[in-house]
């Protein structure tokens, strides 16, 4: 499988890269980012770092240039982990946050789907607090959560419209993500997440492995809630694959 990964320098994207390099069923990993992406240092001796190609993209809202398209031609799947997170969004102009979260994603899917293999599986990393129902009034981070919900709605519509071209989409909606060396989620945050349901904390490796598994073996449902990601991820991972 030829896998495209965005957000490859971030928490989620870098773990997707690490596990994809360890997985023999993934033959090629194309990391698209605004700066060069290196193979993670903790990838392990079993991995094939030569499978990783770093592709730098400067303009994310225009048609991708030929120099980028040539790398992503015939891709089988994409894990999209590029976004401005809720905490980062607080210090940014909301128009810029929307451009990065919404426009970059829709433009990315459109460009990739035009040149990808059939089927082409696109897994969008979102979160449990993101709301698809645009009629809802939300008590906190309303503008952000509804905007991310519009991303989810648009990519799912895109898949319906391009079903004949083999485009398949699902959305991963984890709650808390745990990983070694990362500060534990605070108790008030955990309590807040519990109000959404579907919120077991998912290990970073389980989240990444679950998304790779859906790319490899087919999308089983939408959305993929925390409990789905834990279940699929645990099934896909060997104990030695976990990030330590
Ligand atoms: N972290 C969590 O606990 C958590 C929980 C639930 C859901 N999620 C969701 O998981 C997804 C990934 O989150 P994360 O924690 O991995 O985020 P992260 O560590 O902040 O990574 C974000 C990625 O997006 C890229 N990015 C941001 N702005 C960009 C821009 N203007 N142009 C190009 N690339 C840009 C970053 O690249 P640069 O390095 O170049 O900035 C980075 O690779 C998000 O959708 C998030 O909402 C995260």
Give structural notes.
The protein is of the alpha/beta class. The chain has a single domain (2-241), classed as Rossmann fold (3-Layer(aba) Sandwich). It is built from eight helices and nine strands. It has helices spanning 11-22, 66-72, 86-89, 94-115, 142-161, 187-194, 204-217, 226-236, and strands at 2-6, 28-33, 52-56, 77-80, 120-125, 167-173, 177-178, 202-203, 224-225. The strands form two sheets. A seven-stranded parallel sheet has the order 3-2-1-4-5-6-9, with helices on both faces. Strands 7-8 form a two-stranded parallel sheet. Helix 1 (11-22) packs across helix 7 (204-217), helix 4 packs parallel to helix 5 and helix 7 (204-217) crosses helix 8. The longest helix is centred in the middle third of the chain and has 22 residues, at 94-115. It binds NADP nicotinamide-adenine-dinucleotide phosphate (NAP). NADP nicotinamide-adenine-dinucleotide phosphate is lined by residues 7-13, 33-35, 81-85, 100, 125-127, 174, 177.
């Amino acid at each position: 499988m030829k896998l495209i990964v965005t957000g490859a320098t971030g928490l989620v994207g870098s773990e997707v890269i690490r596990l994809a390099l360890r997985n023999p069923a993934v033959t090629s990993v194309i990391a698209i980012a605004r700066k060069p992406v290196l193979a993670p240092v903790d990838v392990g001796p079993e991995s094939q770092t030569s499978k990783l190609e770093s592709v730098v993209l400067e303009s994310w809202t225009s048609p991708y240039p030929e120099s980028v398209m040539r790398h992503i031609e015939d891709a089988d799947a994409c894990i999209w982990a590029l976004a401005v997170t809720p905490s980062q969004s607080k210090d940014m102009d909301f128009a810029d946050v929307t451009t990065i979260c919404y426009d970059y994603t829709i433009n990315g899917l459109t460009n990739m789907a035009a040149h990808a293999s059939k089927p082409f599986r696109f897994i969008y990393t979102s979160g449990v607090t993101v709301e698809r129902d645009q009629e809802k009034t939300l008590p906190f981070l309303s503008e952000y959560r509804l905007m991310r919900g519009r991303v989810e709605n648009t990519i799912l519509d895109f898949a319906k419209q391009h079903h004949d071209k083999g485009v398949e989409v699902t959305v991963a909606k984890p709650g808390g993500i745990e990983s070694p060396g990362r500060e534990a989620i605070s108790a008030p945050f955990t309590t807040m997440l519990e109000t959404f349901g579907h919120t077991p904390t998912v290990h970073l490796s389980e989240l990444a492995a679950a998304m790779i598994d859906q790319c490899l073996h087919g999308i089983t449902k939408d959305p993929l809630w925390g409990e789905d990601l834990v279940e699929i991820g645990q099934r896909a991972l060997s104990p030695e694959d976990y990030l330590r």
